[in-house]
Amino acid sequence: EPEVKLGDVSGDGTLNTMDALLLFASVNGSSDREMDMATADINKDGKVVYTVLGDSIAAGYSLPGFVEDTKWKASWPVVDGSYPQYVAQGIGATKVYQDAHIGLRSHDLRYLLCEDYPGDIAVGWRVPTTDNYRTVDQTGLAKVRKQYYNHIKQADVITLGIGINDLTIPSGILDNVQGENLNLALAFWGDMLGNAYKLADNAAYMAQVSTLLIGFYRQYVSNFNAIVTKIKEINPNAKLLVIGYYNAAQDAFVKGALPVDIGALVTPFIDLFNSHAAGAAAGNGYTYVKMEHIDTLFCDRNSPGYLNDNHPTPYGHKQMADIILAALQTA
Predict the structure, then answer these.
(1) Are 199 and 182 a contacting pair, CB within 8 Å?
(2) Which tens digit of pLDDT belongs to each residue from 117-161?
(3) Which of 56, 185, 201, 225 is the most buried (most CB within 10 A)?
(4) How many whole angstroms separate alpha carbon 300 and alpha carbon 312?
(5) pLDDT tens digits, residue range 167-224?
(6) Rounded Cα gap, residues 23 and 87, in angstroms
(7) How far apart are CA 300 and CA 251, in angstroms?
């Protein structure tokens, strides 16, 4: 008969991930919202490593405890109340690498992972650079890339949510450079020649950034395929879950003389964006996780982010974690 050990909730005589899952479920069973728990013992040695790849949604942006980590490294802190935290608890993770960063595009993540990818004109905004976001620091890049490889290689579970910033970030860059141009114009007479060169350089830069908006979906598909291939090359055994994008405006409806169903306007774009990842899952060794009706700040009339911020509310992060944990049971 097996020896009874403190913490051996399952009663099998050993302390393992299943005990952690059962203990977590018992402690949290009285909460106001029960979470689905992954029942699979991800790693039989009792250790579960969870690596998070993605953008600001996974990074916990807009949650009360979020603080941007400005030092260039792969891992940022796991934010309390973020879906990675709940997923980590649900699978009994003993180590979490939170490698999701705000503003990260599929171009940037591909550049961080794939040495043969030359990147594009905007990668400097989200990778180590030496000056003004336009010259990549190759030494710093190599160091961070090694960290990403190591975290992927160790992982038992990986979640990947990337791509929506392929459209939003170029627009933000253009706004930023236009503001720089305004300052240059105001200071033009102080250094006519120097500022003229800078304005001309900015004009050429903005033209190149603008082309990213035109072909963003085609490039996203190429980037996504390369990212998944690289992850599977580094670690073919990890459970890889690709997180679909929710429609942040899905439940938003503006009343008035001419009422507008904002969600219906956005749905075709979100469906297009998700279609590739969903359709390619079967033959590429990952599980696609569909996200719908996630509670967002965009739809929260009591939030400063109402009709503006696409990120999940604290409850929305719990919803996402529930869906991911349920998907993990059959991954």
Answers:
(1) no
(2) 998 878 887 888 877 667 889 999 999 999 999 999 999 999 999
(3) 56
(4) 10
(5) 765 555 555 555 555 554 555 444 545 545 465 565 665 565 555 555 677 889 999 9
(6) 15
(7) 10
